[in-house]
Amino acid sequence: MACPNPFNGSFPRVSHVTVPKGYPRVAHPQNLSTGAFPTATFSQNFLAVPNKPGVPKPVSWSPPQAPSSDVIGEMREAVKSTDWWQLYLDKKTKFRVAADWSADSSRCGLLQTLCAVSGARRVLEIGQCCGVATLAMAEVLPEGGQVCSVEIDPFLADFAKQFWARSPHGGKIHSFIGTAMEYLKGNAPHDGPFDLVVIDADKDGIWEYYCKLKQGLLAPKAIVVVDTTPHKGQPPDRYVRFGAEHKWESNSGQEAIEAALKHFQTEDSVSMASFGGVTVLYPKPAA
Ligand SMILES: C[S@@+](CC[C@H](N)C(=O)[O-])C[C@H]1O[C@@H](n2cnc3c(N)ncnc32)[C@H](O)[C@@H]1O
Predict the structure, then answer these.
(1) If I label 228, which of 162, 205, 258, 279 is the partner at 20 to 30 A Cα–Cα?
(2) Could you tell me the distance, in angstroms and rounded to a whole number, from the CA of residue 179 to the centre of ligand 1?
(3) Which residues contact 204 (CB under 8 A, 6 or more apart)?
(4) Is the shortest distance between the CB of 45 and ligand 1 below 6 Å?
(5) How far apart are CA 63 and CA 111, in angstroms?
(6) What's the complex ipTM?
(7) Distance in angstroms (rounded) separating the CA atoms of residues 56 and 75
(8) pLDDT (0 to 100) of residue 96
(9) How confident is the model at residue 231, as a pLDDT?
């Protein structure tokens, strides 16, 4: 039977893996670390080998879970307990931030794993929000590694900094406050080229940011992770910005996401894999 190429098209979006009868269950899933990266563990036993002939191996995907460091744990608590709507009404934030914009354990685990397996030293995060994913990635970069994060909202940038300052890895983070395009045109040529880039800001900008990155800002084997979750990180619609804050409205960004994905498919030199709310672009292996 032909073996399906897991990177050809989309993975099913599953959060739970149903293990067919006959597969051994693993009592301690935390022992399933790949060894490539000791702090990434896999919550499901998708590495299990069938013990009955003829039982097909399940085709599924389960995100690595990042065990949170103390500081990341504190950040998560702070993100959860903050009244983001009130901060927006008080004009402290530019956006009506939602706590679930901030990277959860699966997202952090995925980004940490990609950083580790790609050997990334220079990482760029476009759309930092509360800085949880930023610190998670910094934690796995080697000495001398650097995460450059870009955030349009000064309140969020400051929110993150108070926590980063308490982490031994905070010194690896360089934060830029301003728009993604300002950064890409200004500081990025000096900070890059980047081994791994996370595009996780406004959805309308996805394709534009990617095009700009391709102009010499990506290392030869760079991985680009694009957040494709509708509604996340969207700015308010124009009229709301001018005076009617209580009427927060933003579009889902779905059209821009779909347009960007179509563009990515025309890129000859990259392969794509979509799962867990992201699309990962990585260099096609040489034929
Ligand atoms: C979904 S959140 C980022 C989440 C973060 N990457 C994480 O994993 O925790 C999107 C962020 O992008 C920021 N943003 C939106 N448009 C932007 C732009 N044009 N330039 C820079 N940041 C932007 C928003 O303020 C928001 O904090």
Answers:
(1) 162
(2) 9
(3) 253, 256
(4) no
(5) 10
(6) 0.99
(7) 42
(8) 85
(9) 77
- Tell me if 176 CB under 6 Å of ligand 1: no
Tally of residues, the chain: 287
Give pLDDT tens digits for 177-212: 999 999 999 999 999 999 999 999 999 999 999 999
- Residue 271's pLDDT is 94
pLDDT of residue 12: 36
Mind giving me the DSSP string for 170-198? GGGEEEEES-HHHHHHTTHHHH--EEEEE
At residue 236, what is the residue type? P
Residue 213 β-bridge partners? none
Compute the distance from residue 93 Cα to the ligand 1 centre, in Å. Answer: 12
Ligand 1 atom 27, closest CA: 129
Mutational test site, ligand 1, from 101, 112, 132, max ligand atoms within 8 Å of CB: 101
pLDDT, tens digit (0-9, with 9 covering 90-100), for 7-34: 333 333 333 333 334 333 333 333 333 3
The candidate with the shortest Cα–Cα distance to 39, out of 165, 141, 162, is: 141
Residues in the chain predicted with pLDDT less than 50, given as ranges, are 1-51
Residue pair 146/121 in contact (Cβ under 8 Å)? The answer is yes
**Any atom of ligand 1 within 6 Å of the Cβ of 102:** yes
Q: What is the pLDDT of residue 41?
A: 36
Q: Is 195 in the pocket of ligand 1 (CB under 6 A)?
A: no
Bridge partners, 202 (sequence order): none
In the chain, which ranges are continuous DSSP H helix? 70-81, 84-89, 105-118, 132-140, 154-164, 180-185, 188-191, 206-213, 238-241, 254-265
Q: What is the atom index within ligand 1 of the atom nearest the CA of 205?
A: 19
CB 269 within 8 A of CB 212: no
